């Protein structure tokens, strides 16, 4: 496996590359600094990756923020950049463009399936990711793209994003409710990031999964959200 790590934060990106290099040959991983909300920079990151490794097979749209004060960036990073990352991934991987197929995994959240009183924009952005992922997965099947698109919805995970709950510059008018969120975290528990990696690998390895919404919780582990049925599709499509 060859990996391009893409992140705005150079320190985090280099530390991730160092961690990979301890386990794998250093040639297998590159770090590409990039603000995913910048259209040109994201396009460049894809181009650099394909130029470097010669091919693209998997895209994980993972970058995300929790910001209810400067809420527009939450929509920009969590939703618009995920849509753009998906379209760029399809451009390189889909059959009709000469690609050899692949898989795209969009990181949503349980907040994309439930209302969250103290993070309404974060919740909206993640609802958007799920709706987009399920819809584009249908388009991929109908259009025979050869690319599967799925979403992962974790509960609370032990990563730095949880620290944003304590910050007024992130929570804005919802700062007063930080204890309520902490109570929720205590109630539901915190998941180890390794379980998210396990879920991701399961999606990548199972070729039958497309348009699925994987939930990862402390109580139930890795499981899938069940929907009643898919909407009407014309046979002519
Ligand atoms: N930790 C949780 O409790 C939790 C729960 C559900 C979903 N998620 C989602 O998981 C994903 C990963 O988050 P995490 O928990 O690892 O948090 P994190 O804060 O540790 O990681 C997010 C990463 O995204 C990067 N990033 C932010 N804005 C960026 C931008 N504009 N361009 C490029 N990179 C950018 C950050 O530098 C950071 O490395 C996010 O989409 C998040 O919403 C997290």
Automatic annotation (TrEMBL):
It is an enzyme of class 1 (oxidoreductase). GO terms for cellular component: cytoplasm. GO terms for biological process: prostaglandin metabolic process. Its EC number is 1.1.1.141, 1.1.1.232. One of its GO terms (molecular function) is 15-hydroxyprostaglandin dehydrogenase (NAD+) activity. InterPro entries: NAD(P)-bd_dom_sf (IPR036291), Sc_DH/Rdtase_CS (IPR020904), SDR_fam (IPR002347). PROSITE patterns: ADH_SHORT (PS00061). Pfam families: adh_short (PF00106). Coiled coil: none annotated. It catalyses: (15S)-hydroxy-(5Z,8Z,11Z,13E)-eicosatetraenoate + NAD(+) = 15-oxo-(5Z,8Z,11Z,13E)-eicosatetraenoate + NADH + H(+); resolvin D1 + NAD(+) = 17-oxoresolvin D1 + NADH + H(+); 14-hydroxy-(4Z,7Z,10Z,12E,16Z,19Z)-docosahexaenoate + NAD(+) = 14-oxo-(4Z,7Z,10Z,12E,16Z,19Z)-docosahexaenoate + NADH + H(+); resolvin E1 + NAD(+) = 18-oxo-resolvin E1 + NADH + H(+). Keywords: Fatty acid metabolism, Lipid metabolism, Oxidoreductase, Prostaglandin metabolism. Catalyzes the NAD-dependent dehydrogenation (oxidation) of a broad array of hydroxylated polyunsaturated fatty acids (mainly eicosanoids and docosanoids, including prostaglandins, lipoxins and resolvins), yielding their corresponding keto (oxo) metabolites. Decreases the levels of the pro-proliferative prostaglandins such as prostaglandin E2 (whose activity is increased in cancer because of an increase in the expression of cyclooxygenase 2) and generates oxo-fatty acid products that can profoundly influence cell function by abrogating pro-inflammatory cytokine expression. Belongs to the short-chain dehydrogenases/reductases (SDR) family. This is 15-hydroxyprostaglandin dehydrogenase [NAD(+)]. It comes from Pogona vitticeps. The lineage of its organism: Eukaryota, Metazoa, Chordata, Craniata, Vertebrata.
């Amino acid at each position: 496996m060859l990996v391009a790590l893409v992140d705005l934060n150079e320190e985090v990106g280099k530390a991730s590359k160092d961690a990979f290099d301890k386990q794998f040959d250093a040639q297998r991983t590159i770090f590409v600094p990039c603000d995913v909300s910048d259209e040109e920079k994201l396009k460049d990151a894809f181009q650099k990756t394909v130029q470097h490794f010669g091919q693209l097979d998997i895209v994980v749209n993972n970058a995300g923020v929790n910001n209810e004060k400067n809420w527009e960036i939450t929509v920009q990073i969590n939703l618009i950049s995920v849509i753009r990352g998906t379209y760029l991934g399809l451009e390189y991987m889909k059959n009709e463009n000469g690609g050899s197929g692949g898989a795209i995994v969009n990181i949503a959240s349980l907040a994309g399936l439930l209302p969250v009183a103290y993070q309404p924009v974060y919740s909206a952005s993640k609802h958007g990711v799920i709706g987009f992922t399920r819809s584009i997965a249908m388009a991929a099947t109908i259009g025979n793209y050869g690319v599967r698109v799925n979403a992962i919805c974790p509960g609370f995970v032990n990563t730095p994003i949880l620290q944003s709950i304590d910050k007024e510059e992130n929570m804005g008018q919802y700062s007063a409710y930080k204890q309520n969120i902490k109570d929720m975290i205590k109630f539901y528990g915190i998941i180890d990031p390794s379980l998210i990696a396990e879920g991701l690998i399961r999606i990548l390895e199972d070729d039958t999964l497309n348009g699925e919404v994987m939930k990862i919780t402390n109580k139930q582990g890795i499981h899938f959200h069940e929907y009643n049925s898919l909407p009407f599709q014309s046979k002519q499509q």
